[in-house]
Design goal:
- By secondary structure, this protein is of the alpha+beta class.
- The protein has 2 domains: 2-80, OB fold (Dihydrolipoamide Acetyltransferase, E2P) (Beta Barrel); 84-249, Recombination protein O, C-terminal domain (de novo design (two linked rop proteins), Up-down Bundle).
- The chain is 30% helix and 26% strand.
- The chain is built from 5 helices and 9 strands; from the N terminus they run E-E-E-E-E-H-H-H-E-E-E-E-H-H.
- A hairpin with a 4-residue loop joins strand 7 (169-172) and strand 8.
- Helix 2 packs antiparallel against helix 3 (132-146).
- It is elongated.
């Protein structure tokens, strides 16, 4: 077994016997990995104590991921428990949504560093004055980029026509982009996007954050992007409202 030292974000913990934990970790070297922390809850644990959700650790693992079994956690040192992201219900709820999205996909070792960076940046941003809805939308866009998915929100993917920004537009889940008439005919994979949500999506795409974009616009953008992420892992989300073709975001 290879002994690996890596940075890890704890995404899931399950009690295993009276003294141990089964963990799901997002690491910068191994991506998503399952691990067992034997004796972590003992008073004199060699690991350093039990791990907690959405805390950042420096861990030492006996890597058994290539065998398709749980790795063994040998040591864990707490680096950050993100107190700024726990100061309000809204921030705490945003952290839970970040956690659910990270659990909805399998992160490869190649994508581990970028995914961990995007996640930690988002959690730390919740301590600033940025609205949680905007943080979530930025996180979701960044995570899609890591996964190699780039939604087209500045023009129609079929014709190249740019939207006016004054009326609702259609977004194709299958095409991962906007569609303008007549390409919207006889389609069952369309989601309606309001002008305000489109403005939020375009600001995410260009990286130019405009003043005047409302919180609900970022909330709508996050809802769409979150489901695009979940589609990559074939999962359903519990904390994000389902997409409703009859109701614009």
């Amino acid at each position: 077994m290879a002994l690996i030292t890596t940075t890890a974000l704890c995404l899931r913990k399950v009690d295993f016997s009276e003294t141990s934990q089964i963990l799901t970790l997002l690491t910068d070297q191994l991506g998503t990995v399952g691990a067992i922390a034997k004796g972590a809850k003992r008073e004199k644990s060699g690991i350093g104590g039990p791990l907690d959700l959405m805390c950042l650790y420096n861990v030492v693992l006996y890597d058994r991921s290539k065998r398709g079994t749980l790795s063994i956690l040998a040591q864990a040192e707490l680096l950050d428990f993100f107190p700024g992201a726990r100061h309000s219900y809204e921030a705490f709820s945003a952290v839970e949504r970040i956690r659910e999205l990270l659990l909805s996909i399998e992160v490869s070792p190649q994508d581990g560093p970028s995914t961990l960076l995007v996640a930690v940046k988002a959690i730390r941003s919740l301590a600033d004055d940025v609205p949680p809805e905007q943080v979530l939308a930025q996180f979701a866009w960044g995570l899609l980029a890591v996964l190699g998915v780039e939604p087209t929100v500045t023009e129609c993917v079929a014709s190249g026509i740019e939207p006016s920004g004054k009326v609702e537009v259609a977004f194709s889940i299958r095409e991962m982009g906007l569609l303008a008439p007549p390409h919207t005919e006889h389609r069952s994979d369309l989601v309606r996007i309001s002008p305000r949500t489109l403005a939020a999506l375009q600001s995410l795409a260009t990286g130019e954050f405009r003043r005047g974009i409302q919180v609900d616009a970022y909330a709508g953008a996050f809802t769409l992007l979150a489901w695009l992420i979940a589609m990559q892992g074939g999962r359903r989300l519990r904390t994000v409202a389902p997409l409703d073709p009859a109701r614009p975001l």
